[in-house]
Amino acid sequence: MATIPLTAIADGNNTFLWETLTGTDDGAPLEQKGIAGLAGSIQMVGTFGAAVTAQVSNDGTNWATLLDTADSGIAMTAAGLKEFSTAARYIRVLGAGVTDVDVYIRIAS
Asked: How far does Cα 19 stand from its chain's mean position?
C-alpha cells in the first residue's frame, strides 16, 4: 500500500487529482483550512476490479465514508461522478484492490 500524492490541476477550477491508485493505495488527504463547509464533485475513472471509497475526517486519524448529496456512501466500482457536501476538515480516497484508477476532486468556490 502506498500513499498517492494529491496534485493540483492548473485549470483555475479548484480541481485536484489522485493519479494511478492501484491495489490498496490511499490518497494523501486533502485538507481544507479555514472553510466552514465544503461542496464539490468527485469523479473516478480507470480499471477498477474493486471499490475506491471516498472518506472524511476531522482529525486525520479516524475516517468515515463521505456521503453524496443523496446520503449514500461514495464507494465506486466503476467510472462515475458524485456530488458531495461536507463540513469535515479532510478528504481522502482508499483503494480496496483496484487495478488502475484516477480520482479527480473539484471543490466548488
From this structure: 11
**Secondary structure of 44-56 as H, E, C letters:** EEEECCCCEEEEE
Q: Domain residues of the chain, as ranges?
A: 3-104
User: What is this structure's pTM?
Assistant: 0.91
Per residue in 59-97, pLDDT (tens digit) is 999 999 999 999 999 999 999 999 999 999 999 999 998
- Cα dist from 45 to 9, 48, 64, 90, whole Å: 16, 8, 22, 22
Report the first-to-last Cα separation within the chain, whole angstroms.
Answer: 33
User: Could you name the CATH architecture of 3-104?
Assistant: Sandwich (2.60)
pLDDT digits (tens, 9 = 90+) for 31-69: 887 767 789 999 999 999 999 999 999 999 999 999 999
Cell output for 51: 471499490
